[in-house]
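<goal> How does this chain fold?
<body> The protein record starts here
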Amino acid sequence: MKRVHSYLAVLLAALLLVAGTMLTGALPACTPVQVTGATKLEVSVGTSPAAGWAWLVGVIKTGPEKTDEKLTEHRYAWTFFVVMGSMEISTAEGKKTLSAGDGMVIAAEQQHSHSYLPESEILVIQLRPADQLSHLPGPAGQLSQKALEVHGGRTVSPMGERINLAGGTDYKLRVREFSLSRGQRISDALNIGANFGYIQDGTLTIRKGDNLSTIEAGKTFVLPLDGVDTVSNESAIRVRFILVDVH
C-alpha cells in the first residue's frame, strides 16, 4: 500500500508540473542548435571608402491597396528585400516581381519604378559613405527620420553606426534568414561581419555577458562583432529574423 501511495504521489506531482507549464507558458531550457541560415541574397559592394560606410535602413509597409510610384533614380545603390507580400521593380531591362524572401539591388543612377502589392513589407538597405551623412540633422551617429523618408515617406528604422572595414578589399553584402523554434538557441558564432538584423516574427533574446535584450517583430538590432553568448527563442512562438552583413 505504501508503494502505491508513493507511486500516486509521484504521478500527481508530474501532472501538476505539466499543468503548471501549460497554464503559465513556461519554457523548457533552451536547446542549442547548429544554424547557418538560408542565404537569400549575396552581392558585391566593392571596396570600402576611406571614410567607411554607414547603414541606412528603411521598412516600407503597405495597406490594403496597391501603391505605384513614378520613375526615379538614386545617387547610391539600394537593396530591396521582401519580408512579406511582394513588389514589382521596373527598369530598362523589364519588370521583375519579388516575392517574400527575394531581394534585388538597384544600382546607383539606375532609373526604375516600384509597385508595392497590398499588405506587403519591404526592407530597404543602403550602404552610404559615412562622410556623406555629416549634413544630416540629428545627434552624432544617428540619422533623422526625415532624412530616411524614402519612397513616399513611409516608416523607417534609422541606423547610423559607422562601419570601419579594411581598405583594398572587395566586400559582399549578404542577406540571410534564420528560424528558431520555441526553446532553441544559437550558441556558436554566426560568422558575421558588420551587421544588423530585422525581426520578422516572434521575439528574439540576445545574451552577452550580464546583458540581456529582447527584440520584437518589426524591430532592428545589431550583433557585436566580438560575438554573443546566445541568440535564443524564449517566446511561445517561432522566431524568424533576417541578418544582413558585409563580409
